[in-house]
Design brief:
This protein has two domains: 76 residues, Multidrug-efflux Transporter Regulator, Chain: A, Domain 2; 161 residues, Regulatory factor, effector binding domain (Multidrug-efflux Transporter 1 Regulator Bmrr, Chain A). Helix content is 38%, strand content 26%. The chain has eight helices and eleven strands. The strands form two sheets. Strands 4-9-11-10-6-7-5-8 form an eight-stranded antiparallel beta sheet. Strands 1-3-2 form a three-stranded antiparallel beta sheet. β10 and β11 form a beta hairpin. α1 packs across α3, α3 runs antiparallel to α4 and α4 runs antiparallel to α5. The N and C termini lie far apart (93 Å).
Length: 271
């Protein structure tokens, strides 16, 4: 029989670890003295100790180590843990790349100006998104709504008369609505809109506008808050503008990488 110190020296496990493994039933000593409480290990347990140390050094969780020591496949435990580690590492790598993309995009200068805008009729359609899973809405989903509205407006000779925009509004409990809007040359009646779309009018207004133009092909991961939105709110805070029930409108400009830009605006005064 081996005293705990001797067993520790042979296996490379610390005495503290061996006591913990005993408490957790991972590696139980062959004997425990009833009077002194000293732990003693059998010579045949050295193999188990070496396996336990190797697996723990590799980060294998204690329950899996206990199963391996009990004879249920040390190599399988290591392989399964390695697969979990690789999957987690892949997720971390993707998050690291996404964070770099966000920071790089935030470094692009954003122009923020005021402009006067005339009355603008529009047609919109809302997409409901859960607040717990905002990433569930993809660009393809929004593009499908924009495309359908465009085709209907074009077929009805109602335009559209300019660039589309998106905005957010509160939805039912636990949701937010992404509203896809097309400007129209005239007001559209409710009968044309049907059950899904709706018509509205932006009044004559003064807008605060932030425009972001990528300089080196910067892109943003799905679901990231756009740098133009951040710059717009920086400007709102700096000007101490009190905006109640504000509607932030986001528009994509340009048809190619050379003239691509994102514009975000909010009405600071209506007329």
């Amino acid at each position: 029989m081996l005293q705990i110190g001797e067993f520790a020296g042979l296996t490379g496990l610390s005495v503290k670890a061996l006591r913990h493994y005993d408490e957790k039933a991972v590696l139980v000593p062959a004997e425990v003295d009833d009077v002194s409480g000293y732990r003693r290990y059998g010579e045949g347990q050295v193999r188990d100790g070496v396996v336990a140390r190797a697996l723990r050094d590799a980060g294998v969780p204690l329950p899996a180590v206990a199963a391996a020591v009990a004879g249920r496949g040390a190599r399988d435990a290591l392989t399964e843990h390695r697969q979990r580690v690789l999957e987690a590492r892949s997720i971390e790598d993707q998050a690291f790349v996404a964070a770099e993309d966000v920071l790089r995009a935030m470094e692009v200068p954003v122009s923020v100006v005021e402009r006067e805008m005339a009355v603008q009729p529009f047609v919109g359609q809302a997409i409901s998104v859960s607040l717990d899973a905002p990433e569930s809405l993809s660009d393809e989903d929004a593009n499908a709504v924009f495309g359908e509205l465009f085709e209907r407006l074009h077929a009805s000779a109602l335009g559209p008369s300019g660039q589309f925009w998106t905005t957010l509004r509160a939805g039912e409990r636990g949701t937010v609505e992404v509203v896809c809007c097309w400007p129209t040359p005239v007001e559209v009646d409710d009968e044309w809109c049907g059950p899904q779309a709706f018509a509205g009018v932006l009044p004559a207004r003064t807008e605060l506008v932030a425009t972001w133009r990528p300089t080196r092909g910067e892109t943003l991961p799905d679901g990231a808050t756009h740098p133009a939105v951040v710059a717009l709110f920086d400007a709102i805070a700096g000007r101490e503008i009190d905006l109640r029930d504000m509607e932030v409108r986001q528009t994509v400009l340009g048809q190619s990488e050379e003239d691509y830009a994102v514009e975000v605006s909010v009405s600071v005064e209506t007329r």
